[in-house]
Design goal:
Elements (H helix, E strand, L loop, with lengths): L2 E2 L31 E2 L16 E2 L2 H7 L13 E3 L9 E4 L20 E2 L5 E5 L6 E7 L2 E5 L2 E4 L5 E11 L2 E12 L2 E2 L7 H16 L2 H8 L6 H12 L12 H20 L11 H6 L72 E2 L2 E2 L7 H9 L3 H9 L4 H8 L1 E2 L3 H4 L6 H7 L2 H10 L3 E2 L16 E2 L1 H4 L4 H7 L8 E2 L5 E2 L18 H15 L4 E2 L11 H19 L36
Protein backbone atom coordinates (compact mmCIF):
# COMPACT_ATOMS: atom_id res chain seq x y z
CA UNK A 1 0.00 0.00 0.00
CA UNK A 2 1.39 3.39 -0.95
CA UNK A 3 0.45 6.14 1.43
CA UNK A 4 -0.52 9.47 -0.07
CA UNK A 5 -0.66 12.78 1.76
CA UNK A 6 -2.12 12.77 5.20
CA UNK A 7 -5.87 13.06 4.56
CA UNK A 8 -7.74 11.35 1.77
CA UNK A 9 -10.04 14.30 1.19
CA UNK A 10 -7.33 16.96 1.39
CA UNK A 11 -7.13 19.21 -1.67
CA UNK A 12 -4.45 21.87 -1.50
CA UNK A 13 -3.34 24.53 -3.93
CA UNK A 14 -0.19 26.29 -2.89
CA UNK A 15 1.04 28.63 -5.59
CA UNK A 16 4.40 30.23 -5.03
CA UNK A 17 4.67 33.37 -7.12
CA UNK A 18 8.33 33.72 -6.18
CA UNK A 19 9.15 30.56 -8.13
CA UNK A 20 9.07 31.39 -11.84
CA UNK A 21 9.39 27.76 -12.86
CA UNK A 22 6.25 26.66 -11.04
CA UNK A 23 3.15 25.67 -12.94
CA UNK A 24 0.15 27.46 -11.47
CA UNK A 25 -3.40 26.28 -11.36
CA UNK A 26 -5.84 27.66 -13.94
CA UNK A 27 -8.20 28.57 -11.13
CA UNK A 28 -5.66 31.01 -9.73
CA UNK A 29 -5.25 33.02 -12.94
CA UNK A 30 -7.18 36.11 -13.95
CA UNK A 31 -8.88 36.11 -17.36
CA UNK A 32 -6.08 38.24 -18.78
CA UNK A 33 -3.52 35.62 -17.74
CA UNK A 34 -5.24 32.73 -19.49
CA UNK A 35 -3.87 31.42 -22.73
CA UNK A 36 -7.45 30.78 -23.86
CA UNK A 37 -10.78 32.43 -23.16
CA UNK A 38 -14.43 32.33 -24.15
CA UNK A 39 -14.95 32.39 -27.94
CA UNK A 40 -16.98 35.22 -29.50
CA UNK A 41 -20.63 34.37 -30.15
CA UNK A 42 -20.08 33.88 -33.89
CA UNK A 43 -17.13 31.54 -33.51
CA UNK A 44 -17.75 27.80 -33.63
CA UNK A 45 -16.05 25.08 -31.60
CA UNK A 46 -12.75 24.79 -33.42
CA UNK A 47 -9.33 23.99 -32.04
CA UNK A 48 -6.80 24.88 -34.73
CA UNK A 49 -3.18 23.98 -34.24
CA UNK A 50 -2.24 27.10 -36.15
CA UNK A 51 -4.33 29.58 -34.14
CA UNK A 52 -2.33 31.94 -31.97
CA UNK A 53 -5.37 32.55 -29.76
CA UNK A 54 -6.87 29.40 -28.31
CA UNK A 55 -10.64 29.27 -27.73
CA UNK A 56 -12.30 26.97 -25.24
CA UNK A 57 -15.83 25.68 -25.46
CA UNK A 58 -18.03 27.19 -22.69
CA UNK A 59 -18.75 23.75 -21.20
CA UNK A 60 -15.04 23.09 -20.72
CA UNK A 61 -14.45 26.64 -19.49
CA UNK A 62 -17.15 26.25 -16.87
CA UNK A 63 -15.77 22.86 -15.88
CA UNK A 64 -12.27 24.27 -15.36
CA UNK A 65 -13.63 26.82 -12.90
CA UNK A 66 -15.16 24.14 -10.70
CA UNK A 67 -13.47 22.46 -7.77
CA UNK A 68 -13.38 18.75 -8.61
CA UNK A 69 -15.13 16.38 -6.25
CA UNK A 70 -13.32 13.23 -5.18
CA UNK A 71 -15.29 10.32 -6.52
CA UNK A 72 -14.74 6.70 -7.37
CA UNK A 73 -16.74 7.24 -10.55
CA UNK A 74 -14.25 7.69 -13.41
CA UNK A 75 -16.84 9.68 -15.34
CA UNK A 76 -16.61 12.43 -12.74
CA UNK A 77 -12.85 12.56 -13.09
CA UNK A 78 -12.80 13.00 -16.88
CA UNK A 79 -15.09 15.27 -18.85
CA UNK A 80 -16.22 14.20 -22.27
CA UNK A 81 -17.51 17.05 -24.37
CA UNK A 82 -21.07 16.19 -25.37
CA UNK A 83 -20.74 17.39 -28.94
CA UNK A 84 -17.75 15.12 -29.51
CA UNK A 85 -17.97 11.54 -28.28
CA UNK A 86 -14.44 10.95 -27.03
CA UNK A 87 -12.91 7.58 -26.28
CA UNK A 88 -9.63 9.17 -25.28
CA UNK A 89 -7.91 8.04 -22.15
CA UNK A 90 -4.46 8.69 -20.71
CA UNK A 91 -1.90 7.25 -18.36
CA UNK A 92 -0.02 9.33 -15.79
CA UNK A 93 3.30 7.77 -14.87
CA UNK A 94 6.65 8.56 -13.31
CA UNK A 95 9.73 6.43 -12.72
CA UNK A 96 8.04 4.77 -9.72
CA UNK A 97 4.51 4.24 -10.97
CA UNK A 98 5.63 2.95 -14.36
CA UNK A 99 6.52 -0.35 -12.70
CA UNK A 100 4.54 -0.10 -9.44
CA UNK A 101 1.21 1.65 -10.10
CA UNK A 102 -0.66 3.21 -7.20
CA UNK A 103 -3.62 1.03 -6.33
CA UNK A 104 -6.93 2.65 -7.17
CA UNK A 105 -10.53 1.51 -7.28
CA UNK A 106 -12.80 -0.15 -4.74
CA UNK A 107 -11.14 -0.38 -1.31
CA UNK A 108 -8.18 1.56 -2.69
CA UNK A 109 -7.42 5.18 -3.46
CA UNK A 110 -10.31 6.91 -5.28
CA UNK A 111 -8.40 8.70 -8.04
CA UNK A 112 -7.77 7.43 -11.56
CA UNK A 113 -5.08 9.93 -12.47
CA UNK A 114 -2.38 10.48 -9.82
CA UNK A 115 0.87 12.38 -10.14
CA UNK A 116 3.55 13.46 -7.68
CA UNK A 117 5.12 16.89 -7.22
CA UNK A 118 8.70 17.40 -8.33
CA UNK A 119 8.80 14.08 -10.15
CA UNK A 120 9.15 13.98 -13.91
CA UNK A 121 5.78 12.73 -15.15
CA UNK A 122 4.81 11.38 -18.54
CA UNK A 123 1.25 11.82 -19.82
CA UNK A 124 0.52 9.34 -22.59
CA UNK A 125 -2.44 8.52 -24.79
CA UNK A 126 -3.89 5.07 -24.26
CA UNK A 127 -4.09 3.16 -27.54
CA UNK A 128 -3.49 6.28 -29.60
CA UNK A 129 -4.10 6.23 -33.35
CA UNK A 130 -1.01 6.10 -35.50
CA UNK A 131 -2.52 8.55 -37.98
CA UNK A 132 -3.53 11.11 -35.33
CA UNK A 133 -1.89 14.23 -33.98
CA UNK A 134 -2.24 15.08 -30.29
CA UNK A 135 -2.05 18.36 -28.47
CA UNK A 136 -1.74 18.71 -24.69
CA UNK A 137 -2.82 21.69 -22.60
CA UNK A 138 -1.81 21.45 -18.94
CA UNK A 139 -3.04 23.98 -16.38
CA UNK A 140 -3.72 26.50 -19.13
CA UNK A 141 -0.37 26.07 -20.85
CA UNK A 142 0.32 24.36 -24.16
CA UNK A 143 2.51 21.57 -22.85
CA UNK A 144 3.41 19.86 -26.13
CA UNK A 145 2.42 17.67 -29.03
CA UNK A 146 2.52 13.95 -29.70
CA UNK A 147 1.20 10.77 -28.16
CA UNK A 148 3.00 11.57 -24.91
CA UNK A 149 4.33 14.64 -23.16
CA UNK A 150 6.42 15.34 -20.09
CA UNK A 151 5.31 17.55 -17.20
CA UNK A 152 6.73 18.55 -13.84
CA UNK A 153 4.20 19.77 -11.30
CA UNK A 154 5.58 21.72 -8.35
CA UNK A 155 2.48 22.01 -6.21
CA UNK A 156 -0.10 19.58 -4.91
CA UNK A 157 -3.83 19.60 -5.64
CA UNK A 158 -6.03 19.19 -8.69
CA UNK A 159 -4.53 19.80 -12.15
CA UNK A 160 -6.38 19.99 -15.48
CA UNK A 161 -5.16 18.23 -18.56
CA UNK A 162 -6.83 18.81 -21.95
CA UNK A 163 -6.07 16.35 -24.71
CA UNK A 164 -7.04 17.13 -28.32
CA UNK A 165 -6.89 14.52 -31.07
CA UNK A 166 -6.80 15.48 -34.74
CA UNK A 167 -7.01 13.14 -37.70
CA UNK A 168 -6.49 14.49 -41.21
CA UNK A 169 -6.47 18.04 -39.87
CA UNK A 170 -9.90 17.73 -38.23
CA UNK A 171 -10.50 17.69 -34.50
CA UNK A 172 -12.11 14.36 -33.74
CA UNK A 173 -11.90 14.12 -29.97
CA UNK A 174 -11.31 16.36 -26.98
CA UNK A 175 -11.20 15.22 -23.39
CA UNK A 176 -10.48 16.96 -20.11
CA UNK A 177 -8.88 15.04 -17.28
CA UNK A 178 -8.50 15.90 -13.61
CA UNK A 179 -5.13 14.79 -12.27
CA UNK A 180 -4.62 14.81 -8.53
CA UNK A 181 -1.07 15.64 -7.45
CA UNK A 182 -0.15 14.11 -4.11
CA UNK A 183 3.02 13.33 -2.23
CA UNK A 184 3.50 9.55 -2.02
CA UNK A 185 5.23 7.78 0.84
CA UNK A 186 6.98 4.52 0.02
CA UNK A 187 8.66 1.75 1.98
CA UNK A 188 12.24 2.81 2.58
CA UNK A 189 13.67 -0.22 0.78
CA UNK A 190 11.66 0.55 -2.36
CA UNK A 191 12.75 4.19 -2.52
CA UNK A 192 15.34 5.00 -5.16
CA UNK A 193 18.82 5.55 -3.76
CA UNK A 194 18.82 9.21 -4.69
CA UNK A 195 15.46 9.87 -3.02
CA UNK A 196 16.44 7.97 0.12
CA UNK A 197 19.71 9.91 0.29
CA UNK A 198 17.80 13.17 -0.12
CA UNK A 199 15.57 12.23 2.82
CA UNK A 200 18.52 11.38 5.04
CA UNK A 201 20.39 14.55 4.07
CA UNK A 202 17.37 16.72 4.87
CA UNK A 203 16.94 14.96 8.23
CA UNK A 204 20.59 15.61 9.03
CA UNK A 205 20.11 19.31 8.30
CA UNK A 206 17.22 19.35 10.79
CA UNK A 207 19.64 17.82 13.28
CA UNK A 208 22.28 20.52 12.77
CA UNK A 209 20.47 23.77 11.95
CA UNK A 210 18.45 25.49 14.72
CA UNK A 211 14.88 26.55 14.01
CA UNK A 212 15.64 30.28 14.06
CA UNK A 213 18.38 29.92 11.45
CA UNK A 214 16.44 27.39 9.38
CA UNK A 215 13.42 29.67 9.08
CA UNK A 216 15.60 32.44 7.68
CA UNK A 217 17.38 30.12 5.26
CA UNK A 218 14.68 27.67 4.22
CA UNK A 219 11.30 29.14 5.09
CA UNK A 220 8.64 29.55 7.75
CA UNK A 221 7.76 25.84 8.05
CA UNK A 222 11.28 24.80 8.98
CA UNK A 223 11.53 23.17 12.41
CA UNK A 224 14.71 21.67 13.80
CA UNK A 225 14.99 18.21 15.28
CA UNK A 226 15.47 19.74 18.73
CA UNK A 227 12.30 21.80 18.33
CA UNK A 228 10.34 18.70 17.35
CA UNK A 229 11.89 16.71 20.21
CA UNK A 230 10.83 19.40 22.67
CA UNK A 231 7.23 19.21 21.45
CA UNK A 232 7.17 15.43 21.79
CA UNK A 233 8.78 15.70 25.22
CA UNK A 234 6.21 18.23 26.43
CA UNK A 235 3.29 16.03 25.42
CA UNK A 236 4.82 12.64 26.22
CA UNK A 237 6.95 13.53 29.23
CA UNK A 238 4.78 15.89 31.22
CA UNK A 239 4.19 15.27 34.90
CA UNK A 240 0.37 15.10 34.92
CA UNK A 241 -0.19 12.43 32.24
CA UNK A 242 0.91 11.26 28.80
CA UNK A 243 -0.98 13.50 26.38
CA UNK A 244 0.18 11.73 23.22
CA UNK A 245 0.19 8.05 24.16
CA UNK A 246 -2.05 5.62 26.04
CA UNK A 247 -5.16 6.95 24.32
CA UNK A 248 -6.85 7.49 20.97
CA UNK A 249 -5.06 10.82 20.56
CA UNK A 250 -1.89 8.85 19.82
CA UNK A 251 -3.01 8.24 16.25
CA UNK A 252 -4.05 11.76 15.30
CA UNK A 253 -1.15 13.46 17.09
CA UNK A 254 1.50 11.31 15.45
CA UNK A 255 -0.10 11.50 12.01
CA UNK A 256 0.02 15.30 12.23
CA UNK A 257 3.48 15.29 13.84
CA UNK A 258 4.92 13.22 11.01
CA UNK A 259 3.40 15.58 8.47
CA UNK A 260 4.92 18.54 10.31
CA UNK A 261 8.33 16.85 10.17
CA UNK A 262 7.85 16.09 6.49
CA UNK A 263 6.88 19.67 5.67
CA UNK A 264 10.00 20.84 7.47
CA UNK A 265 12.08 18.53 5.28
CA UNK A 266 10.33 19.95 2.22
CA UNK A 267 11.50 23.45 3.04
CA UNK A 268 14.98 22.09 2.25
CA UNK A 269 14.18 19.72 -0.59
CA UNK A 270 10.58 20.21 -1.79
CA UNK A 271 10.53 16.83 -3.52
CA UNK A 272 11.23 14.79 -0.39
CA UNK A 273 8.70 12.61 1.42
CA UNK A 274 9.08 10.63 4.62
CA UNK A 275 9.43 6.94 3.74
CA UNK A 276 7.86 4.36 5.99
CA UNK A 277 9.72 1.45 7.51
CA UNK A 278 7.69 -1.73 7.23
CA UNK A 279 9.23 -3.46 10.22
CA UNK A 280 6.84 -6.40 9.77
CA UNK A 281 9.45 -7.58 7.24
CA UNK A 282 12.03 -7.79 10.01
CA UNK A 283 9.45 -9.59 12.14
CA UNK A 284 8.69 -12.07 9.37
CA UNK A 285 12.18 -12.74 8.06
CA UNK A 286 14.23 -12.68 11.25
CA UNK A 287 14.31 -14.01 14.80
CA UNK A 288 14.58 -11.89 17.99
CA UNK A 289 18.34 -12.53 18.07
CA UNK A 290 18.99 -11.69 14.39
CA UNK A 291 16.63 -8.94 13.19
CA UNK A 292 19.10 -6.17 14.05
CA UNK A 293 21.27 -7.45 11.20
CA UNK A 294 18.68 -6.22 8.69
CA UNK A 295 19.95 -4.01 5.87
CA UNK A 296 18.08 -1.02 7.31
CA UNK A 297 20.70 -0.82 10.07
CA UNK A 298 23.55 -0.27 7.64
CA UNK A 299 25.84 2.60 8.59
CA UNK A 300 24.48 4.83 5.82
CA UNK A 301 20.82 4.03 6.63
CA UNK A 302 19.73 3.89 10.30
CA UNK A 303 23.10 2.99 11.79
CA UNK A 304 23.90 0.12 14.14
CA UNK A 305 20.90 -1.18 16.06
CA UNK A 306 22.78 -2.05 19.26
CA UNK A 307 26.12 -0.27 19.60
CA UNK A 308 28.59 -2.28 21.66
CA UNK A 309 30.19 0.56 23.58
CA UNK A 310 29.75 1.99 27.06
CA UNK A 311 27.83 5.01 25.73
CA UNK A 312 25.39 2.83 23.78
CA UNK A 313 25.69 5.26 20.90
CA UNK A 314 26.25 4.82 17.16
CA UNK A 315 29.87 5.63 16.29
CA UNK A 316 29.98 4.87 12.55
CA UNK A 317 28.05 6.16 9.56
CA UNK A 318 25.81 9.15 9.03
CA UNK A 319 24.24 9.02 12.51
CA UNK A 320 27.53 8.61 14.36
CA UNK A 321 27.39 10.56 17.61
CA UNK A 322 24.02 12.07 16.70
CA UNK A 323 23.67 14.75 19.39
CA UNK A 324 21.15 14.84 22.19
CA UNK A 325 20.71 18.47 23.16
CA UNK A 326 22.59 19.38 26.31
CA UNK A 327 22.31 22.51 28.49
CA UNK A 328 18.62 22.35 27.60
CA UNK A 329 17.30 24.09 30.72
CA UNK A 330 16.99 27.41 28.86
CA UNK A 331 15.49 25.68 25.82
CA UNK A 332 12.90 23.42 27.43
CA UNK A 333 10.97 23.35 30.69
CA UNK A 334 11.20 19.55 30.57
CA UNK A 335 14.61 17.86 30.67
CA UNK A 336 16.53 15.46 32.88
CA UNK A 337 18.73 16.33 35.85
CA UNK A 338 21.81 16.68 33.66
CA UNK A 339 20.05 19.24 31.50
CA UNK A 340 19.85 16.81 28.58
CA UNK A 341 16.71 16.97 26.44
CA UNK A 342 15.35 13.63 27.65
CA UNK A 343 12.49 12.35 29.74
CA UNK A 344 12.88 13.56 33.36
CA UNK A 345 12.83 9.99 34.66
CA UNK A 346 15.69 9.03 32.30
CA UNK A 347 18.78 10.47 34.01
CA UNK A 348 21.22 9.37 31.34
CA UNK A 349 23.93 12.03 30.83
CA UNK A 350 25.06 10.67 27.44
CA UNK A 351 25.06 13.63 25.01
CA UNK A 352 24.31 11.41 22.00
CA UNK A 353 21.47 9.29 20.66
CA UNK A 354 21.44 5.92 22.46
CA UNK A 355 20.31 2.38 21.63
CA UNK A 356 20.60 -1.04 23.27
CA UNK A 357 19.43 -4.55 22.50
CA UNK A 358 19.11 -5.40 26.21
CA UNK A 359 16.12 -4.71 28.44
CA UNK A 360 17.06 -4.16 32.09
CA UNK A 361 20.00 -6.54 32.00
CA UNK A 362 18.44 -9.19 29.75
CA UNK A 363 18.90 -9.58 26.02
CA UNK A 364 15.55 -8.58 24.60
CA UNK A 365 13.52 -11.62 23.58
CA UNK A 366 11.10 -9.69 21.39
CA UNK A 367 11.27 -8.58 17.80
CA UNK A 368 9.23 -5.88 16.04
CA UNK A 369 5.49 -6.24 15.68
CA UNK A 370 4.49 -8.42 12.76
CA UNK A 371 1.62 -9.59 10.62
CA UNK A 372 -0.25 -11.06 13.58
CA UNK A 373 -0.50 -7.69 15.34
CA UNK A 374 -1.58 -6.04 12.09
CA UNK A 375 -4.20 -8.72 11.49
CA UNK A 376 -5.59 -8.10 14.98
CA UNK A 377 -5.78 -4.40 14.19
CA UNK A 378 -7.64 -4.95 10.94
CA UNK A 379 -10.25 -7.07 12.72
CA UNK A 380 -11.18 -4.26 15.10
CA UNK A 381 -14.68 -2.98 14.51
CA UNK A 382 -14.50 0.37 16.31
CA UNK A 383 -12.26 3.40 16.32
CA UNK A 384 -11.60 3.06 20.05
CA UNK A 385 -10.39 -0.53 19.83
CA UNK A 386 -8.51 0.08 16.60
CA UNK A 387 -6.66 3.13 17.92
CA UNK A 388 -5.73 1.17 21.06
CA UNK A 389 -4.22 -1.58 18.94
CA UNK A 390 -2.26 0.97 16.89
CA UNK A 391 -0.96 2.54 20.08
CA UNK A 392 0.16 -0.74 21.58
CA UNK A 393 1.13 -3.96 19.84
CA UNK A 394 0.92 -2.69 16.25
CA UNK A 395 3.68 -0.16 16.90
CA UNK A 396 4.94 -0.14 20.48
CA UNK A 397 7.42 -3.02 20.38
CA UNK A 398 9.75 -1.19 18.03
CA UNK A 399 10.35 1.57 20.57
CA UNK A 400 11.49 -0.90 23.20
CA UNK A 401 13.45 -3.18 20.88
CA UNK A 402 15.45 -0.30 19.36
CA UNK A 403 15.85 1.82 22.52
CA UNK A 404 16.41 -0.79 25.22
CA UNK A 405 17.57 0.01 28.77
CA UNK A 406 20.52 -0.49 31.13
CA UNK A 407 22.07 0.56 34.46
CA UNK A 408 19.38 -1.02 36.60
CA UNK A 409 19.67 -3.78 39.20
CA UNK A 410 16.83 -5.96 37.93
CA UNK A 411 18.89 -8.86 36.57
CA UNK A 412 21.17 -8.84 39.59
CA UNK A 413 18.15 -8.99 41.92
CA UNK A 414 17.13 -12.16 40.09
CA UNK A 415 20.65 -13.64 40.23
CA UNK A 416 20.52 -13.36 36.42
CA UNK A 417 17.99 -16.19 36.31
CA UNK A 418 15.60 -16.29 33.35
CA UNK A 419 11.95 -17.25 33.13
CA UNK A 420 8.94 -16.20 31.06
CA UNK A 421 7.52 -14.32 34.07
CA UNK A 422 10.77 -12.41 34.55
CA UNK A 423 10.76 -11.36 30.90
CA UNK A 424 7.11 -10.33 31.14
CA UNK A 425 7.93 -7.97 33.97
CA UNK A 426 11.11 -6.70 32.29
CA UNK A 427 8.98 -5.40 29.41
CA UNK A 428 6.82 -3.48 31.91
CA UNK A 429 9.42 -1.78 34.13
CA UNK A 430 9.86 1.39 32.09
CA UNK A 431 6.14 2.12 31.83
CA UNK A 432 5.39 1.29 35.46
CA UNK A 433 8.35 3.24 36.86
CA UNK A 434 7.15 6.22 34.89
CA UNK A 435 3.82 6.03 36.72
CA UNK A 436 5.60 6.08 40.07
CA UNK A 437 7.42 9.20 38.84
CA UNK A 438 4.15 10.83 37.83
CA UNK A 439 2.72 10.02 41.28
CA UNK A 440 5.79 11.76 42.77
CA UNK A 441 7.11 8.66 44.50
CA UNK A 442 10.14 8.49 42.21
CA UNK A 443 12.06 11.75 42.41
CA UNK A 444 15.14 12.96 40.56
CA UNK A 445 17.83 15.44 41.64
CA UNK A 446 17.04 18.99 40.65
CA UNK A 447 20.29 19.28 38.70
CA UNK A 448 23.59 17.48 38.23
CA UNK A 449 26.67 18.75 36.46
CA UNK A 450 28.16 16.59 33.74
CA UNK A 451 31.10 15.65 35.97
CA UNK A 452 28.76 13.94 38.45
CA UNK A 453 28.61 10.17 37.92
CA UNK A 454 25.29 8.64 37.02
CA UNK A 455 25.41 6.56 40.23
CA UNK A 456 25.28 9.83 42.20
CA UNK A 457 22.51 11.34 40.09
CA UNK A 458 19.81 8.69 40.01
CA UNK A 459 16.06 8.88 39.97
CA UNK A 460 14.73 6.76 42.82
CA UNK A 461 11.87 6.45 45.27
CA UNK A 462 11.88 9.19 47.87
CA UNK A 463 12.13 7.83 51.44
CA UNK A 464 10.04 10.76 52.62
CA UNK A 465 7.27 9.93 50.16
CA UNK A 466 7.07 6.22 50.89
CA UNK A 467 7.78 6.40 54.63
CA UNK A 468 5.01 4.83 56.65
CA UNK A 469 3.03 3.67 53.63
CA UNK A 470 2.38 0.05 52.78
CA UNK A 471 3.90 -0.98 49.42
CA UNK A 472 0.54 -2.10 48.02
CA UNK A 473 -0.98 1.31 48.84
CA UNK A 474 1.85 3.09 47.05
CA UNK A 475 1.54 0.82 44.02
CA UNK A 476 -2.21 1.23 43.94
CA UNK A 477 -2.02 5.01 44.33
CA UNK A 478 0.30 5.22 41.29
CA UNK A 479 -1.97 2.98 39.21
CA UNK A 480 0.63 0.22 39.00
CA UNK A 481 -1.62 -2.57 40.29
CA UNK A 482 -4.03 -2.03 37.42
CA UNK A 483 -1.30 -2.81 34.88
CA UNK A 484 1.48 -4.89 36.46
CA UNK A 485 2.40 -8.52 36.02
CA UNK A 486 4.97 -9.76 38.53
CA UNK A 487 6.27 -13.08 39.87
CA UNK A 488 6.95 -14.88 43.13
CA UNK A 489 10.19 -16.48 44.34
CA UNK A 490 9.40 -19.57 42.24
CA UNK A 491 8.92 -17.59 39.05
CA UNK A 492 5.13 -17.95 38.91
CA UNK A 493 3.39 -15.04 37.17
CA UNK A 494 1.01 -12.89 39.22
CA UNK A 495 -1.27 -10.50 37.37
CA UNK A 496 -4.33 -10.23 39.62
CA UNK A 497 -4.01 -7.80 42.54
CA UNK A 498 -7.66 -6.93 43.24
CA UNK A 499 -10.95 -8.72 43.64
CA UNK A 500 -13.98 -8.19 41.43
CA UNK A 501 -14.98 -5.15 43.48
CA UNK A 502 -11.62 -3.47 42.99
CA UNK A 503 -10.42 -4.11 46.54
CA UNK A 504 -6.70 -4.82 46.93
CA UNK A 505 -5.69 -8.36 47.84
CA UNK A 506 -3.64 -7.60 50.94
CA UNK A 507 -3.18 -11.32 51.10
CA UNK A 508 -2.80 -12.61 47.56
CA UNK A 509 -4.77 -15.76 46.66
CA UNK A 510 -2.59 -18.80 47.22
CA UNK A 511 -0.06 -16.95 49.39
CA UNK A 512 0.30 -16.19 53.06
CA UNK A 513 0.10 -12.65 54.38
CA UNK A 514 3.87 -12.62 54.86
CA UNK A 515 4.53 -13.96 51.36
CA UNK A 516 2.13 -11.38 49.88
CA UNK A 517 3.85 -8.50 51.63
CA UNK A 518 7.24 -9.70 50.33
CA UNK A 519 5.89 -9.81 46.78
CA UNK A 520 4.55 -6.25 47.05
CA UNK A 521 7.84 -5.06 48.55
CA UNK A 522 9.88 -6.68 45.78
CA UNK A 523 7.63 -5.21 43.11
CA UNK A 524 8.00 -1.69 44.52
CA UNK A 525 11.75 -2.11 45.02
CA UNK A 526 12.36 -3.06 41.40
CA UNK A 527 10.23 -0.22 40.08
CA UNK A 528 11.91 2.40 42.24
CA UNK A 529 14.89 2.56 39.88
CA UNK A 530 13.96 3.33 36.24
CA UNK A 531 17.61 2.99 35.15
CA UNK A 532 18.78 4.47 31.85
CA UNK A 533 16.58 4.19 28.81
CA UNK A 534 17.55 4.29 25.14
CA UNK A 535 16.26 7.34 23.30
CA UNK A 536 13.78 5.40 21.20
CA UNK A 537 12.16 4.00 24.39
CA UNK A 538 11.35 7.31 26.10
CA UNK A 539 9.85 10.73 25.50
CA UNK A 540 12.51 12.06 23.12
CA UNK A 541 12.40 9.06 20.81
CA UNK A 542 12.36 11.76 18.12
CA UNK A 543 16.14 11.92 18.57
CA UNK A 544 16.40 8.59 16.70
CA UNK A 545 15.86 8.58 12.93
CA UNK A 546 13.86 5.35 13.28
CA UNK A 547 11.11 7.32 15.05
CA UNK A 548 10.30 9.28 11.90
CA UNK A 549 10.02 6.26 9.59
CA UNK A 550 8.14 4.20 12.18
CA UNK A 551 4.93 6.21 12.48
CA UNK A 552 4.12 6.48 8.76
CA UNK A 553 3.74 2.69 8.96
CA UNK A 554 0.96 3.15 11.53
CA UNK A 555 -0.50 5.92 9.37
CA UNK A 556 -0.47 3.54 6.41
CA UNK A 557 -2.38 0.91 8.35
CA UNK A 558 -5.01 3.53 9.22
CA UNK A 559 -5.29 4.45 5.53
CA UNK A 560 -5.81 0.81 4.65
CA UNK A 561 -8.50 0.46 7.31
CA UNK A 562 -10.33 3.58 6.13
CA UNK A 563 -10.20 2.49 2.49
CA UNK A 564 -11.86 -0.82 3.35
CA UNK A 565 -15.46 -1.68 4.01
CA UNK A 566 -16.70 0.82 6.63
CA UNK A 567 -20.24 -0.50 6.92
CA UNK A 568 -19.60 -2.30 10.22
CA UNK A 569 -17.00 0.06 11.65
CA UNK A 570 -18.04 2.20 14.61
CA UNK A 571 -16.25 5.55 14.35
CA UNK A 572 -17.48 6.82 17.73
CA UNK A 573 -14.70 8.51 19.68
CA UNK A 574 -15.43 8.31 23.40
CA UNK A 575 -14.96 11.71 25.08
CA UNK A 576 -14.18 10.39 28.57
CA UNK A 577 -10.39 10.13 28.66
CA UNK A 578 -8.96 11.91 31.74
CA UNK A 579 -5.85 13.08 29.89
CA UNK A 580 -6.17 16.03 27.51
CA UNK A 581 -5.47 15.39 23.80
CA UNK A 582 -7.13 11.96 23.84
CA UNK A 583 -10.70 13.19 23.39
CA UNK A 584 -12.35 14.10 20.08
CA UNK A 585 -12.63 17.85 20.72
CA UNK A 586 -9.24 18.35 22.36
CA UNK A 587 -6.83 20.65 20.53
CA UNK A 588 -3.44 19.47 19.33
CA UNK A 589 -0.38 21.77 19.05
CA UNK A 590 -0.35 22.14 15.28
CA UNK A 591 -1.11 24.94 12.87
CA UNK A 592 -0.71 25.64 9.16
CA UNK A 593 -0.51 21.96 8.20
CA UNK A 594 -3.02 22.30 5.38
CA UNK A 595 -3.33 26.06 4.90
CA UNK A 596 -1.93 29.39 6.00
CA UNK A 597 -4.23 30.04 8.94
CA UNK A 598 -2.61 31.27 12.13
CA UNK A 599 -4.45 29.01 14.57
Amino acid sequence: ILMLSILLDNVITNEDESNPTQFVSVSSLSSSDLLFAYPPANVGFDFSFDDRQEYLHPEIEAFLKETPVVSTDPALQRLKVEEIQSDLDITVQNSYTKTSPIQTGKYAYPWNYIAEPYKATVLAVVNGRHDARYKWIVDGHIQGYGSSVGVLWTSIGWKRVILIEKVNGTTTSTAVFNVIVKYVRREIRSVFDRDRETFFQAAMILQRVPTEVGIRVFGSKYLSKDHLSRVHLYYGGSWDCDHWHQGAGFVTSHVAFTLQFEQSLQTIYPEVTTPYWDFTLESTLYEPQTWRSSMVFADDWFGKASPDNILHTVVDGRWAFAPAKTSAAKFSDVHNSYGVLRAPWNNDPTPFMTRNSAIYGYENNMKPSGCQEYAFAMRKTSWMSFSKQLNSAAHGHIHETVGGSWNQYFSEANDNSVSPAIYTFAHEIQALSKELWRADYIQCPESCSMDVSWQDCKCECSPEKINGKAPYDILNDAGVLDEASFYDHSGHLISSWKDDNGTIYYTLPGYTEEESLKIYEDLLYLLCDPGHIGDMYQATSTNDITFWVLHPTVDRLWHFKRLGDQSNFNETWDPYHPCYCHNPTDYQPFQNLFDNDTW
